[in-house]
Specification:
Strand order of the largest sheet: 3-4-11
Largest sheet: 3 strands, antiparallel
Protein name: Granulin
InterPro entries: Granulin, Granulin_fam, Granulin_sf
Subcellular location: Secreted
Helix content: under 10%
Family: Belongs to the granulin family.
Structural class: mainly beta
Distance between the termini: 59 Å
Pfam families: Granulin
Number of helices: 2
Oligomer: single chain
Length: 238
């Protein structure tokens, strides 16, 4: 039993040359598992580890957390100590600089540009091959990739139909009155709120003015707390 315990502990902390990205953008070693904590995500030093509900400890795969005894249990005869999760690393890449949203000098947008543009909502659009990004203040920006400065949005000249779909990119879209969100595997999904906030788990979201709590299950706004909503699957443009 001691040999098995040592193998689990040593194997869990083995280093790896690759890394995995957690839903909030932080990085863990390839041999670790992203676990949610009260401030975001941390790294469980086991591959496919079990994240304990106290959001501070974790166990190896196929074990379950025993918070009373502070052990990882598997069958009645196999128990090992819980380990504390390690802090996840911030990405090594530089952060994208954000410029204040400025009113364009010329509001006229060519028809060809509009047809290939990425719509953030029913009023604002970004150039093709860019991504709509929302500032914490609620303003929209166009994110350019790879890592370059953000540019101001172009306001559409004509009044856009309120029922017009929201384009996530040149392939996927959401229905009007919703918000495009990135799912847990990078796929597009739709938050059923206009200007909604996408939660860190990639599954839930909150309405405008609310913020997701660390569990992504509750939306908070001052003294108000309401359950978050599940995102819907984005549709493919024909």
């Amino acid at each position: 039993m001691l040999r098995v315990t040592l193998w689990l502990l040593v194997g869990g902390f083995a280093s790896a040359s690759h890394s995995i990205r957690c839903p909030d953008g932080t990085i863990c070693p390839d041999s670790a598992t992203c676990c949610l904590n009260v401030q975001g995500y941390s790294c469980c030093p086991y591959p496919q580890g079990v994240c304990c509900s106290d959001q501070a400890h974790c166990c190896p795969s196929e074990f379950h957390c025993n918070l009373v005894t502070q052990t990882c249990d598997k069958n009645p005869w196999l128990m090992i100590p819980m380990v504390k999760k390690q802090a996840a690393e911030e990405p090594s890449r530089p952060a994208l600089p954000v410029s204040p949203l400025q009113k364009p000098v010329n509001n006229q947008v060519a028809d060809q540009q509009k047809s290939s543009a990425v719509r953030c909502d029913s009023y604002y659009l970004c150039p093709d091959h860019t991504t709509c990004c929302r500032h914490p203040t609620g303003a929209w920006f166009c994110c350019l990739y790879p890592y370059t400065s953000m540019t101001a949005l172009t306001e559409a000249r004509e009044v856009i139909n309120e029922d017009q779909p929201i384009r996530c990119d040149d392939q996927f879209f959401c229905r009007a009155g919703t918000t495009c969100c990135n799912g847990p595997k990078g796929q597009w999904s739709c938050c059923p709120f206009p200007l909604g906030q996408c939660c860190a788990d990639g599954v839930h979201c909150c309405g405008y003015g609310y913020t997701c709590d660390p569990t992504s299950l509750t939306c908070k706004k001052r003294y108000s707390e309401i359950p978050s909503r599940a995102q819907e699957e984005a549709k493919t443009a024909l």
